[in-house]
Amino acid sequence: MSLDEDARWLEWVTKQFESIAGDDKEIDLDEFKTALKVKESFFAERFFALFDSDGSSSISLDELLKALDLLIHGNETDKLHFLFQVYDVDGSGSIDPDELRTVLKSCLRESAISLPEEKLDDLTLALFESADKDNSGSITFEELKAELENFPEVMENLTISAANWLKPPGIEQNKRHTPRYLTRAYWQNNSRKLLFLCAYASLNLLLFVVALLQNASGGVWYMLARGCGQCLNLNCTFIMILMLRRCLTWLRATWVVRILPLDQNILLHQIVGYAILIFTLVHTAAHVMNFFCIAQSSSKFLLWEYVFTTRPGIGWVKGTASITGVVLQVIICLMVVCSSTFVRRSGHFEVFYWTHLSYIWVWILLIIHCANFWKWFVVPGMIFLLEKIVGIAVSRMGGLYIVEVNLLPSKVTHLVIKRPPFFHFKPGDYVYINIPAIAKYEWHPFTISSAPEQQDTMWLHIRSMGQWTNRLFEYFRQPECQTVSTKRLTTSLRNRQHQKKAQISAKLSENHRYCNIKCYVDGPYGTPTRQIFASEHAVLIGAGIGITPFASILQSIMYRMRKQNCPNCNYSWCENIKDNEMKLRKVDFIWINRDQKSFEWFVSLLTKLEMDQADEEPEGRFLEMHMYMTSALSKNDMKAIGLQMALDLLAKKEKRDSITGLRTRTQPGRPDWSKVFQKVAEEKKGKVHVFYCGSPALAKLIKAQCEHFSFKFYKENF
Predict the structure, then answer these.
(1) 254-281 residue pLDDT tens
(2) For the chain, how far is it from start to end, CA to CA, in angstroms?
(3) Alpha-carbon span 610 to 612, nearest angstrom
(4) Neighbouring C-beta atoms of residue 372, cutoff 10 Å
(5) Distance from chain centroid for Cα 596
(6) Dihedral angle computed from the Cα positions of residues 19, 22, 23 and 27, in that order, rounded to the nearest 10 degrees
(7) In what order do the strands lie in the sheet with 457-463?
(8) What angle do CA 707, 713, 714 make, to 5 degrees?
(9) What percentage of residues in the chain have a pLDDT greater than 70?
(10) What is the distance between the alpha carbons of residues 122 and 471, in angstroms, rounded to a whole number?
(11) What's the pTM value of the predicted model, to 2 decimals?
(12) Alpha-carbon dihedral 406, 408, 412, 418, rounded to 10 degrees
C-alpha cells in the first residue's frame, strides 16, 4: 500500500473499532467473537489471546492495529509466527499431536465438515508425520514453515478471512472498463438473440407506425391506443408461440437452431410478457384519455360510462370492449406480478402456477375485446391446442407408477418411475409430472436425472423448495405411504430382481422404500444441454441440485464410452464410439455444493464414472471432475490451512477424498472462474461450450467469464 492508501485504511479500521467497542474503548472476548463471525470458539479465543498482548482480557485500538499490521502488511515469516502461535496452544514453542488434533477438530467445525473420530485421527497423523521431519514427537516453527512451502499459493493472502471488519477496504480502480454490453465478445456470443430482438423490436415499431397512420383522423390519444392495440395483437399471439414446447423440442433437432435463439425461449417469453404489460397500460391510459376528451366535448355519456358500461356500444360483441379491456388489464397485471422471481423463488410456485393459467381467459377476452385478434390467433391457437391434446393423450396413455423413493440429504426426493416402452428422451431433457396423491391438478417441471440408455426406469431428483415439493417430501416420509399393492409391487420387484418373495416389506429403511404410486408425465421436452454431444470440449457446471441434467448426461457418456475387452487378448474398444452425434473430446464437470451432505445425492454415480476411468492417465482422461464445497474455508484462511494441508496429504496417501469418498479432491470455497477457464482454454481440446444449471446470480458471473474467453454459454431454462 502507498502512504495515502495506508492512511485511508487506518482511518477505516479506527471507525470499525469504534463501532464495535463499548464506552471503555476496549473490545472484550464476547464482542470479539461477535465481530469476528467465527463459528468455533477455539479460534476466537486463540486470536483474542494473541491480539491481547498485555494480557488485560481486552483489546485496545493500538493492540488491534499492531496485530492487523502484522496480518496485512507483514511478511511471510511474521504471518507464519502468528499461525504457529495459534497452533501452539500451551505456548511451549512446539506443537504436539494432541494440540494438532484439537486444532484440526476446530477446523472441521469451522468449515462445517463432519468426519468420524477415526478419520480425524488419520488426518492428524498424516499432517504430523509429514511435518515432523526429525521424528522428535513435536513440530517446531522451522518444520511448520518447511511444510507450508509445499503450498506456495497459501502464504500469498494468509489472513483471517471470515472477519469482514478486519479486511482493508478495496482500493478503487481508476481504470474505466468498457461496459459488458458494448464488448465484441458479448455481441459474438449473443448474436442470434440480439438479432432476433432487433427484428422483434422492428416489427413492433412497424405495426405501431402503420396503425398510427391508419387512424390519424381519430386524434392523438386514439392513434396511440390503436398503435398499442396492434402491437398487442402480435405480442399476445407470439407469447404463446414461445411456449410451444413440443414444436421447440422438434426444431432443436433441425438447422433452425443455428439461426433462431430457441434456447432463449423462456427469456424471450419474459420479455414479451413485460412488453404486453407496457402496451396494455399505455393502450388503456390512451383510451381513457380519449374517452375523457369525448365526454368533455359531448354530454351524451360520462367518463365512467365509457369505461365501465356497455351503454356507448363500443366493441364488436354487444359493446363489451371497455369492460373486457378493464378485466384484461387487471388479469395481465396480476399475471406479471405473480410471475416475478420473488414469488417463484420464495416457495410460492403455486401462486405463479395458478395465476398463469389465466392465459385461457386472456385469450377468450381478447377475442371478445378486439374484432381482429382472432385472425392473429387462429393458426398458433390451433397448434397450441393440438400440443395440449397430444400432451394429455401421451401423459394418460402409459400406466406410470413411482416404484421406488429415496429421501436424500437437504430434503431432496429421488423418485424412480417405471418407464413405458414408448417413452424416449435425450440427456438433459425435462418432463412435467403430476402426482394425484400430492395435488390432483398441479403439474411441475423437473429434469430427468437418469440416462436414456437406462431402459426400465427413469429418475427425478426433486429439491424441496416450495409447497408442492415440500408436500412430496413429507408424503414419502410419513409411515402411511408404506401401504402398497402387494401383488403389483412383488411382480415389479421380481422383474427388477430386487425381491423374489411373494410378501415383502415396502419400507427398506427410514429413507428408502419401494412403493406403487400413480403419476402422470408430460414430455419429454428439450433443453440447451441437447447440444452437448455436438460440442468438442464441454464444461458442465452444476450448482447444488442443478447437477440433475448433468447426471443424465454423465451417465449417458458412461454408457457410450464403456469399454469392451476381448477375452482372448488385451484389446479393448468403446462400443458406441462411432455415434454420429458424439463429437466430444473432453468433458470438465464442476459441481458446487454448499455443504458436505449434498454430495451424497450422486456420489455413487460419480464413483462409477471414476472407476470407468481408473486405468487412464490423469492427462488423458476424457472426463475430469472438480468438486467445490462453499461452506469450507479456503486454504489461505488461518482457520483452515492446517485442515486443508491434512486433507491433501491423506488424499494422496489413501487415493480418496475424505469428504466425499471420491478420488477427486474436494476443493474448499468457490471456484476462481478466471483460473478455471484459463486452464480450459490452455488445454486446446477444441471449441469450448459451457453448460450451466443453478442459481441465476452465479449464471451472470459465469456468463461474463465465458464472454471474456469467447466460450459459448448455455443456461438451463424451463
Answers:
(1) 888 888 888 888 889 999 999 999 999 9
(2) 48
(3) 5
(4) 12
(5) 17
(6) -110
(7) 457-463, 412-418, 401-408, 512-518
(8) 160
(9) 82
(10) 42
(11) 0.77
(12) -20
**Helical spans, DSSP H, in 436-521:** 467-477, 486-495
Query: What is the per-residue pLDDT across 303-348, written as a single tens digit (0 to 9) for each?
Result: 787 788 888 788 788 888 889 999 999 999 999 998 887 777 666 7
For the CA atoms of 633, 636, 638, 641, what is the dihedral angle to 10 degrees?
Answer: 80
In 3D, which of 23, 22, 13 has the Cα closest to residue 63?
Answer: 13
Cell numbers found for residue 413 = 426426493
The SS3 of residue 354 is: helix
Q: Is 254 exposed, middle or buried (0-12, 13-18, 19+ CB in 10 A)?
A: exposed
pLDDT mean over 394-423? 84
Cell of 151: 503450498
C-alpha to C-alpha distances, 181 to 43, 178, 200, 673, 702, nearest whole angstrom: 45, 8, 19, 20, 15
Where do the H-state alpha helices sit in 169-264? Answer: 184-189, 191-214, 220-241, 245-251
3-state per-residue secondary structure call for 521-577: EEEEECCHHHHHHHCCEEEEEEEHHHHHHHHHHHHHHHHHHCEEECCCCCCEEECCC
Q: Which of 630, 149, 93, 111 is nearest to 103 (CA)?
A: 111
Q: Which residues contact 297 (CB under 8 A, 6 or more apart)?
A: none
Q: What tens digit of pLDDT does each residue of 485-508 get? A: 444 444 444 454 444 333 334 444
Question: C-alpha cell of 7?
Answer: 492512511
Give pLDDT, residue 43: 78
How many residues make up the chain in this entry? 718
C-alpha cell at 40: 468455533
pLDDT of residue 614: 63
- Output Rg (C-alpha) for the chain, integer angstroms: 32
Q: How far is CA 220 from CA 215, 225, 226, 287, in A?
A: 9, 9, 10, 10
